Task: structure prediction
Amino acid sequence: MVNVSSSAGSFWAVTDPDRPEFNLPLTLYSASKSAATMLTVQYAKSQPGIKFNAVEPGTTATDLTAAFGVGRTPEESAKVVVRLATLDADGPTGTFQDENGEVPW
Result:
């Protein structure tokens, strides 16, 4: 099986006041990520032989987020991406995941 993970979930992150992303001005970015997450579910339904999952890797310290002074290392954020990219045949598909597992919609 092929596994495809897309970075998504920013809508959830910026609408949850317990997340560090909550106060960031990312409305358009989060809307596009929400759309990508919904598309992930549709791909998973239409292509059962391929794993499609959306992933929220967490706020990552990058050049983009440096001005906000938030984020963890790219290596730390990559752990959830690697976990989903290496799923076996029994792994989930059409889900939204973060470092703790499946995130409810």
The longest strand covers residues 2-7. The chain is about 35% helix and 15% strand. The beta strands are 2-7, 50-55, 95-98, 101-102.
